[in-house]
Amino acid sequence: MDVVTALDRLPKVELHCHVEGTMRPGTVVELAGKNGVELRTSDPTELYRYSNLDTFLEIFWLVQSTLGSREDWARLAYESIVDGAAHGLVYRETFFTPARHLDAGQDLADIVAGLAEGLAAAEGETGVRAMLIADIDRAYGAAAGLAMVKRLVELREGASPGAERVIGVGLDSTELGVDPTDFAEAFELAGKVGLRRTSHQGEETPPSHIWAGLDVLGSERIDHGLSSLQDPELTRRLAGERIPLTVCPNSNVVIANAVPRLELHPYRRMREAGLLATLNTDDPALTDLDLGREYQSCMEAFGYRWEDMVAIALDGVEATWLDESDKRELRARVEREAAKLAAELDPPR
Ligand code: ADE
Ligand code: ZN
User: Fold this and answer.
1) What is the pLDDT of residues 136-178, one digit of tens each?
2) pLDDT tens by residue, 210-248
Protein backbone atom coordinates (compact mmCIF):
# COMPACT_ATOMS: atom_id res chain seq x y z
CA MET A 1 0.00 0.00 0.00
CA ASP A 2 1.32 3.46 -0.76
CA VAL A 3 1.50 6.06 1.98
CA VAL A 4 -1.15 8.25 0.32
CA THR A 5 -3.71 5.46 0.60
CA ALA A 6 -2.57 4.59 4.12
CA LEU A 7 -3.01 8.20 5.30
CA ASP A 8 -6.46 8.31 3.75
CA ARG A 9 -7.41 5.16 5.66
CA LEU A 10 -5.73 6.08 8.95
CA PRO A 11 -8.51 6.72 11.51
CA LYS A 12 -8.59 10.47 12.09
CA VAL A 13 -10.56 12.94 14.19
CA GLU A 14 -11.41 16.44 13.11
CA LEU A 15 -11.99 19.38 15.44
CA HIS A 16 -12.04 22.30 13.05
CA CYS A 17 -14.55 21.80 10.28
CA HIS A 18 -17.52 24.02 9.47
CA VAL A 19 -20.47 21.90 8.42
CA GLU A 20 -21.56 24.54 5.90
CA GLY A 21 -18.07 24.38 4.39
CA THR A 22 -18.58 20.69 3.64
CA MET A 23 -21.62 21.23 1.41
CA ARG A 24 -21.29 19.29 -1.84
CA PRO A 25 -21.43 21.53 -4.95
CA GLY A 26 -24.44 19.55 -6.20
CA THR A 27 -26.23 20.16 -2.90
CA VAL A 28 -25.44 23.89 -3.08
CA VAL A 29 -27.12 24.01 -6.51
CA GLU A 30 -30.15 21.97 -5.43
CA LEU A 31 -30.77 23.86 -2.20
CA ALA A 32 -30.24 27.22 -3.93
CA GLY A 33 -32.87 26.22 -6.50
CA LYS A 34 -35.25 24.99 -3.83
CA ASN A 35 -34.91 28.07 -1.63
CA GLY A 36 -34.69 30.72 -4.36
CA VAL A 37 -31.04 31.72 -3.87
CA GLU A 38 -29.42 33.23 -6.97
CA LEU A 39 -26.03 31.57 -7.72
CA ARG A 40 -25.22 32.99 -11.20
CA THR A 41 -23.69 29.63 -12.15
CA SER A 42 -24.57 25.94 -12.33
CA ASP A 43 -21.08 25.06 -11.04
CA PRO A 44 -20.59 26.83 -7.69
CA THR A 45 -16.92 25.79 -7.58
CA GLU A 46 -16.36 28.56 -10.18
CA LEU A 47 -17.11 30.97 -7.33
CA TYR A 48 -14.62 29.41 -4.92
CA ARG A 49 -11.66 31.77 -5.40
CA TYR A 50 -10.44 33.85 -2.49
CA SER A 51 -7.84 36.48 -1.75
CA ASN A 52 -8.38 36.68 2.02
CA LEU A 53 -10.71 35.61 4.82
CA ASP A 54 -13.27 38.31 4.13
CA THR A 55 -13.63 37.50 0.41
CA PHE A 56 -13.91 33.83 1.37
CA LEU A 57 -16.63 34.66 3.88
CA GLU A 58 -18.77 36.28 1.17
CA ILE A 59 -18.90 32.90 -0.59
CA PHE A 60 -19.28 31.00 2.68
CA TRP A 61 -22.29 33.20 3.51
CA LEU A 62 -23.78 32.56 0.06
CA VAL A 63 -23.44 28.80 0.61
CA GLN A 64 -24.92 29.16 4.09
CA SER A 65 -27.90 31.10 2.72
CA THR A 66 -29.05 28.03 0.75
CA LEU A 67 -30.07 26.32 4.04
CA GLY A 68 -33.74 27.10 4.48
CA SER A 69 -35.30 24.39 6.62
CA ARG A 70 -34.74 21.63 9.15
CA GLU A 71 -34.53 19.04 6.37
CA ASP A 72 -31.83 21.06 4.55
CA TRP A 73 -29.71 21.07 7.72
CA ALA A 74 -30.27 17.33 8.11
CA ARG A 75 -29.17 16.63 4.56
CA LEU A 76 -26.07 18.80 4.99
CA ALA A 77 -25.03 17.05 8.20
CA TYR A 78 -25.66 13.60 6.77
CA GLU A 79 -23.65 14.19 3.59
CA SER A 80 -20.88 15.87 5.56
CA ILE A 81 -20.24 12.75 7.64
CA VAL A 82 -20.64 10.31 4.75
CA ASP A 83 -18.03 12.31 2.81
CA GLY A 84 -15.69 12.47 5.80
CA ALA A 85 -15.99 8.71 6.41
CA ALA A 86 -14.68 8.08 2.88
CA HIS A 87 -11.35 9.60 3.99
CA GLY A 88 -10.80 7.97 7.36
CA LEU A 89 -12.84 10.28 9.59
CA VAL A 90 -13.93 8.49 12.77
CA TYR A 91 -14.95 11.34 15.05
CA ARG A 92 -15.72 15.02 14.44
CA GLU A 93 -16.67 17.99 16.58
CA THR A 94 -18.36 20.09 13.88
CA PHE A 95 -19.02 23.83 13.82
CA PHE A 96 -22.26 25.34 12.64
CA THR A 97 -22.82 29.11 12.53
CA PRO A 98 -26.53 29.94 12.51
CA ALA A 99 -26.42 33.77 12.92
CA ARG A 100 -27.79 34.66 9.50
CA HIS A 101 -30.46 31.98 9.65
CA LEU A 102 -31.63 33.14 13.08
CA ASP A 103 -31.60 36.71 11.81
CA ALA A 104 -33.82 35.59 8.90
CA GLY A 105 -36.31 33.99 11.26
CA GLN A 106 -35.23 30.33 11.51
CA ASP A 107 -35.47 28.79 14.98
CA LEU A 108 -32.33 27.37 16.55
CA ALA A 109 -34.44 24.42 17.69
CA ASP A 110 -35.10 23.41 14.05
CA ILE A 111 -31.49 23.91 13.02
CA VAL A 112 -30.15 21.79 15.89
CA ALA A 113 -32.82 19.11 15.41
CA GLY A 114 -32.07 18.93 11.69
CA LEU A 115 -28.32 18.72 12.16
CA ALA A 116 -28.65 16.08 14.88
CA GLU A 117 -31.01 14.03 12.72
CA GLY A 118 -28.56 14.07 9.80
CA LEU A 119 -25.63 13.18 12.07
CA ALA A 120 -27.54 10.28 13.62
CA ALA A 121 -28.46 8.88 10.20
CA ALA A 122 -24.85 9.12 9.02
CA GLU A 123 -23.56 7.58 12.27
CA GLY A 124 -25.84 4.60 11.77
CA GLU A 125 -24.54 4.09 8.26
CA THR A 126 -20.82 4.83 8.69
CA GLY A 127 -20.01 4.36 12.39
CA VAL A 128 -18.47 7.86 12.46
CA ARG A 129 -19.46 9.75 15.63
CA ALA A 130 -20.10 13.48 15.48
CA MET A 131 -20.98 16.25 17.90
CA LEU A 132 -21.78 19.92 17.35
CA ILE A 133 -20.23 23.25 18.33
CA ALA A 134 -22.49 26.29 17.93
CA ASP A 135 -20.35 29.13 16.63
CA ILE A 136 -21.07 32.79 17.22
CA ASP A 137 -20.55 34.81 14.03
CA ARG A 138 -18.38 37.80 14.96
CA ALA A 139 -19.87 39.82 12.08
CA TYR A 140 -23.29 39.80 13.76
CA GLY A 141 -21.99 41.30 17.00
CA ALA A 142 -22.09 40.56 20.69
CA ALA A 143 -25.86 40.90 21.27
CA ALA A 144 -26.66 38.29 18.61
CA GLY A 145 -24.00 36.00 20.06
CA LEU A 146 -25.42 36.25 23.55
CA ALA A 147 -28.96 35.69 22.23
CA MET A 148 -27.81 32.51 20.48
CA VAL A 149 -26.21 31.14 23.64
CA LYS A 150 -29.33 31.99 25.69
CA ARG A 151 -31.53 30.13 23.18
CA LEU A 152 -29.14 27.20 23.29
CA VAL A 153 -29.43 27.10 27.07
CA GLU A 154 -33.24 27.03 26.73
CA LEU A 155 -33.04 24.15 24.27
CA ARG A 156 -30.79 22.19 26.63
CA GLU A 157 -33.02 22.83 29.61
CA GLY A 158 -36.09 21.80 27.61
CA ALA A 159 -34.37 18.68 26.26
CA SER A 160 -35.18 19.88 22.74
CA PRO A 161 -34.43 17.22 20.08
CA GLY A 162 -30.73 17.12 19.25
CA ALA A 163 -29.72 19.67 21.91
CA GLU A 164 -27.57 17.03 23.62
CA ARG A 165 -25.36 16.93 20.52
CA VAL A 166 -24.27 20.52 21.04
CA ILE A 167 -21.32 20.19 23.39
CA GLY A 168 -19.77 23.59 23.02
CA VAL A 169 -19.71 27.09 21.61
CA GLY A 170 -17.17 28.76 19.36
CA LEU A 171 -16.51 32.06 17.63
CA ASP A 172 -15.75 32.46 13.95
CA SER A 173 -16.05 34.70 10.89
CA THR A 174 -14.24 37.97 10.30
CA GLU A 175 -11.37 38.73 12.72
CA LEU A 176 -9.97 42.06 11.63
CA GLY A 177 -11.47 45.05 13.38
CA VAL A 178 -13.45 42.94 15.86
CA ASP A 179 -12.57 42.92 19.55
CA PRO A 180 -12.87 39.34 20.83
CA THR A 181 -13.59 40.59 24.35
CA ASP A 182 -16.99 41.87 23.09
CA PHE A 183 -18.15 38.25 23.35
CA ALA A 184 -17.15 37.77 26.98
CA GLU A 185 -20.72 37.68 28.29
CA ALA A 186 -21.86 35.05 25.80
CA PHE A 187 -18.83 32.88 26.61
CA GLU A 188 -19.30 33.35 30.34
CA LEU A 189 -22.88 32.11 30.10
CA ALA A 190 -21.79 29.14 27.99
CA GLY A 191 -19.16 28.21 30.57
CA LYS A 192 -21.64 28.54 33.43
CA VAL A 193 -24.01 25.97 31.94
CA GLY A 194 -21.23 23.49 31.19
CA LEU A 195 -20.77 24.10 27.47
CA ARG A 196 -17.18 23.71 26.30
CA ARG A 197 -15.54 26.76 24.73
CA THR A 198 -13.28 27.33 21.75
CA SER A 199 -12.66 30.30 19.47
CA HIS A 200 -11.09 31.17 16.14
CA GLN A 201 -8.16 33.44 16.97
CA GLY A 202 -4.91 34.35 15.29
CA GLU A 203 -5.93 33.40 11.77
CA GLU A 204 -5.39 36.98 10.60
CA THR A 205 -4.77 38.59 13.97
CA PRO A 206 -1.78 38.89 16.33
CA PRO A 207 -1.12 36.89 19.53
CA SER A 208 -3.05 39.46 21.60
CA HIS A 209 -6.27 37.96 20.18
CA ILE A 210 -5.19 34.46 21.23
CA TRP A 211 -4.49 35.74 24.75
CA ALA A 212 -7.98 37.29 24.81
CA GLY A 213 -9.47 34.01 23.60
CA LEU A 214 -7.83 32.20 26.51
CA ASP A 215 -8.04 34.69 29.34
CA VAL A 216 -11.21 36.66 28.58
CA LEU A 217 -13.34 34.11 26.75
CA GLY A 218 -12.07 31.04 28.62
CA SER A 219 -11.39 29.10 25.42
CA GLU A 220 -10.10 25.59 26.05
CA ARG A 221 -8.92 25.27 22.47
CA ILE A 222 -7.86 27.82 19.89
CA ASP A 223 -8.99 27.42 16.30
CA HIS A 224 -6.13 28.25 13.89
CA GLY A 225 -3.78 30.00 16.35
CA LEU A 226 -1.53 30.67 13.38
CA SER A 227 0.24 33.63 15.00
CA SER A 228 1.07 31.72 18.22
CA LEU A 229 4.81 31.44 17.59
CA GLN A 230 5.15 35.22 17.30
CA ASP A 231 4.91 35.41 21.11
CA PRO A 232 7.35 33.24 23.09
CA GLU A 233 5.39 33.68 26.34
CA LEU A 234 2.17 32.60 24.64
CA THR A 235 3.96 29.64 23.10
CA ARG A 236 5.18 28.59 26.55
CA ARG A 237 1.66 28.91 27.98
CA LEU A 238 0.03 26.92 25.15
CA ALA A 239 2.68 24.21 25.26
CA GLY A 240 2.86 24.05 29.06
CA GLU A 241 -0.89 23.63 29.49
CA ARG A 242 -1.31 21.42 26.39
CA ILE A 243 -3.97 23.80 25.07
CA PRO A 244 -4.93 22.37 21.67
CA LEU A 245 -4.67 24.39 18.50
CA THR A 246 -6.90 23.22 15.67
CA VAL A 247 -4.62 24.18 12.80
CA CYS A 248 -5.75 24.17 9.15
CA PRO A 249 -2.59 24.60 7.06
CA ASN A 250 -4.20 24.32 3.61
CA SER A 251 -6.95 26.73 4.62
CA ASN A 252 -4.36 29.24 5.83
CA VAL A 253 -2.84 29.19 2.33
CA VAL A 254 -6.06 29.17 0.31
CA ILE A 255 -8.56 31.05 2.50
CA ALA A 256 -6.67 33.50 4.72
CA ASN A 257 -3.81 33.79 2.22
CA ALA A 258 -1.65 34.17 5.32
CA VAL A 259 1.16 31.97 3.97
CA PRO A 260 2.07 31.81 0.28
CA ARG A 261 2.77 28.07 0.14
CA LEU A 262 2.19 25.08 2.39
CA GLU A 263 5.97 24.52 2.75
CA LEU A 264 6.21 27.96 4.37
CA HIS A 265 3.48 27.28 6.95
CA PRO A 266 4.78 27.24 10.57
CA TYR A 267 2.97 23.95 11.38
CA ARG A 268 6.13 21.90 11.83
CA ARG A 269 7.76 24.61 13.90
CA MET A 270 4.63 24.84 16.03
CA ARG A 271 4.85 21.15 16.86
CA GLU A 272 8.60 21.36 17.44
CA ALA A 273 7.92 24.15 19.93
CA GLY A 274 5.78 21.68 21.89
CA LEU A 275 2.36 22.92 20.77
CA LEU A 276 -0.51 20.46 20.61
CA ALA A 277 -1.19 21.41 16.99
CA THR A 278 -3.79 19.17 15.37
CA LEU A 279 -4.58 18.92 11.64
CA ASN A 280 -7.94 19.90 10.18
CA THR A 281 -9.60 20.95 6.91
CA ASP A 282 -11.76 23.96 7.93
CA ASP A 283 -14.02 24.14 4.83
CA PRO A 284 -13.08 21.15 2.68
CA ALA A 285 -15.78 21.35 0.00
CA LEU A 286 -15.06 25.02 -0.63
CA THR A 287 -11.32 24.45 -1.00
CA ASP A 288 -11.29 21.14 -2.89
CA LEU A 289 -9.89 19.25 0.09
CA ASP A 290 -10.51 16.23 2.32
CA LEU A 291 -8.90 15.09 5.57
CA GLY A 292 -6.79 12.43 3.82
CA ARG A 293 -5.32 15.06 1.52
CA GLU A 294 -4.76 17.45 4.43
CA TYR A 295 -2.56 14.76 6.03
CA GLN A 296 -0.85 13.75 2.75
CA SER A 297 -0.02 17.30 1.69
CA CYS A 298 1.34 18.16 5.14
CA MET A 299 3.46 15.00 5.27
CA GLU A 300 5.06 16.01 1.99
CA ALA A 301 5.35 19.74 2.66
CA PHE A 302 6.90 19.34 6.13
CA GLY A 303 9.03 16.26 5.47
CA TYR A 304 7.19 14.10 8.00
CA ARG A 305 7.49 10.32 8.34
CA TRP A 306 4.58 7.89 8.78
CA GLU A 307 5.22 7.81 12.55
CA ASP A 308 4.90 11.60 12.73
CA MET A 309 1.51 11.45 11.02
CA VAL A 310 0.28 8.80 13.45
CA ALA A 311 1.44 11.01 16.33
CA ILE A 312 -0.55 13.92 14.82
CA ALA A 313 -3.65 11.73 14.56
CA LEU A 314 -3.22 10.71 18.22
CA ASP A 315 -2.82 14.34 19.27
CA GLY A 316 -6.18 14.92 17.57
CA VAL A 317 -7.71 12.37 19.94
CA GLU A 318 -6.11 14.05 22.94
CA ALA A 319 -7.54 17.41 21.84
CA THR A 320 -11.16 16.18 21.61
CA TRP A 321 -13.81 16.87 24.23
CA LEU A 322 -14.51 13.16 24.64
CA ASP A 323 -14.37 11.76 28.15
CA GLU A 324 -11.24 9.90 29.23
CA SER A 325 -12.56 6.40 28.59
CA ASP A 326 -13.76 7.29 25.06
CA LYS A 327 -10.40 8.92 24.40
CA ARG A 328 -8.57 5.80 25.57
CA GLU A 329 -10.70 3.60 23.33
CA LEU A 330 -10.24 5.85 20.31
CA ARG A 331 -6.52 6.14 20.93
CA ALA A 332 -6.23 2.33 21.03
CA ARG A 333 -8.16 2.08 17.77
CA VAL A 334 -5.89 4.59 16.01
CA GLU A 335 -2.79 2.77 17.30
CA ARG A 336 -4.12 -0.65 16.29
CA GLU A 337 -5.17 0.39 12.80
CA ALA A 338 -2.02 2.45 12.26
CA ALA A 339 0.09 -0.63 13.07
CA LYS A 340 -1.90 -2.70 10.56
CA LEU A 341 -1.50 -0.07 7.87
CA ALA A 342 2.24 0.24 8.61
CA ALA A 343 2.65 -3.49 8.05
CA GLU A 344 1.07 -3.14 4.61
CA LEU A 345 3.10 -0.11 3.58
CA ASP A 346 5.46 -0.44 0.66
CA PRO A 347 8.28 0.00 1.54
CA PRO A 348 7.37 -1.37 5.02
CA ARG A 349 7.89 0.85 8.12
N1 ADE B 1 -16.00 30.32 8.79
C2 ADE B 1 -15.75 29.33 7.93
N3 ADE B 1 -14.44 29.20 7.75
C4 ADE B 1 -13.84 30.13 8.52
C5 ADE B 1 -12.50 30.49 8.76
N6 ADE B 1 -11.49 29.88 8.18
N7 ADE B 1 -12.26 31.51 9.61
C8 ADE B 1 -13.26 32.15 10.18
N9 ADE B 1 -14.54 31.86 9.99
C10 ADE B 1 -14.83 30.85 9.17
ZN1 ZN C 1 -12.65 27.78 10.74
Assistant:
1) 999 999 999 999 999 999 999 999 999 999 999 999 999 999 9
2) 999 999 999 999 999 999 999 999 999 999 999 999 999
Q: How crowded is residue 5: how many other Cβ atoms within 10 Å of its Cβ?
A: 14
- What is the model's pTM? 0.98
CA 143 to ligand 2 centroid distance, Å: 21
CA–CA separation, 28 vs 34, rounded Å? 10
The response to whether residue 60 sits with its C-beta less than 6 Å from ligand 1 reads yes
Q: Is 203 a catalytic residue?
A: yes
* Nearest-angstrom CA–CA distance, 163 and 153: 9
C-alpha 329/C-alpha 245 separation (Å) is 22
- Closest approach atom of ligand 1 to CA 97: 1
Instruction: Please tell me if the CB atom of residue 21 comes closer than 6 angstroms to any atom of ligand 1.
Output: yes
Could you give all domains of the chain from N- to C-terminal order, each with its CATH number?
3-24+66-344 (3.20.20.140)
